UniProtKB/TrEMBL annotation:
Its job: Involved in oxygen transport from the lung to the various peripheral tissues.
Top-level enzyme category: oxidoreductase
Protein name: superoxide dismutase
Family statement: Belongs to the globin family.
Molecular functions (GO terms): heme binding; iron ion binding; oxygen binding; oxygen carrier activity; superoxide dismutase activity
Lineage: Eukaryota, Metazoa, Chordata, Craniata, Vertebrata
Amino acid sequence: STMSLSEAEVQSARGAWEKIYVDAEDNGTAVLIRMFTEHPDTKSYFTHFKGMDSAEEMKQSDQVRGHGKKVFSAINDMVQHLDNSEAFLGTVIPLGKKHATQLKIDPKNFRIICDIILQLMEEKFGRDSKASFEKVTNEICTHLNNIYKEEGW
């Protein structure tokens, strides 16, 4: 298996993720707004969001909300497959390829998003939640970086 998580780690990571995924759209939106605010260069990849400067404006935007929810849905698919590396890769590979080849998103942005999700988890649910999900974000980012390498980044 390509996954380095024990069964116990998978369970606690899922428990932590479920808490934040309950409000997938709001929390996904909050993560993107924080990314766009703290790393304004990341907005350049999103034609719809380029002109938005205020967090309030972003919060009201259907495009930002829609993408926030999409990000959380994609991570949710991965979290559901943490104990099945074939299914996990079946989710991660197409996502990585699309971002590498079609969207040409710098892979460092995946780490930024994951770190912001961990921050939000810690703020909302405490350090244990963050700690139990950290290995998952490392797993996701490692796989995405490998896919990028294969695509010649």
